[in-house]
Design brief:
N-terminal domain of TfIIb, 11 strands, Rossmann fold, 259 residues, 7-stranded mixed β-sheet, 7 helices, globular
Amino acid sequence: MSSYDALAGSYDTLMADGSYRKRADFLEKLFRKSKIPVRSVLDLACGTGTIACLLAERGYQVTATDGSEEMLTQAVSKAAVLEGRAPLFLHQSMPRLRLLEPVDTAISTLDSLNYLTRERDLRETFCRVFRWLRPGGAFLFDVNTPYKLRRMDRQMYMDETEESFCVWRTFFSERTKVCTYQVDLFRLNEEGAWDRDFEEHRERAWTETELRTFLTDAGFEQITFTGDLTSHPPKAEADRWIVRAVRPEEETRSKERIS
């Protein structure tokens, strides 16, 4: 079973403490620092669309992409009750990003980019985001830090609601720099019995040097790292980095056209 096939239906309930509104507020603060006015937003790997819907409610024109049909089903259902213009949802993997038109800014939240465990996929994703950003636009994303993913080795976490019970077992490999999440999900069915599903997720621990190098190679400039939901530099034991990278207003070198 692929990532989030089973979890999609229970994801919002299990992530109820995700502080989505705080994250949307922080993103808006960063939007106001943009060199160009931010009216259109790409939400890359949007999941069940909570951030995309919050931004759409605030008047932004949002295009949201995700590689999971199940997560997008939840997102479309959530957007159906919005007043005003709902996000445009597209079923796309991150390295295959292709939009209808350029956007003013791009975001990716809650460690989605950690799920790209191969260097070539991360590099291609950065190139594609660069391609679809307007000159002067910023790419804003967060990642789980190497410190956090290493600390998760051989740990077990549990999330519980009245209708679901989720157990996460985590293992970190120093060889591959990948943290594997083994997820057992139990859901109460209509007959009162519990159905069990199993998924396996993998997140790569990307270093600051690697991220800076890949972003620079893609053409980005003014690359900054901060702690989570703050403008301050990250601490050595930070669990999450927020990264901001800007597409130059004037191209310094020609870019190959993405086919």
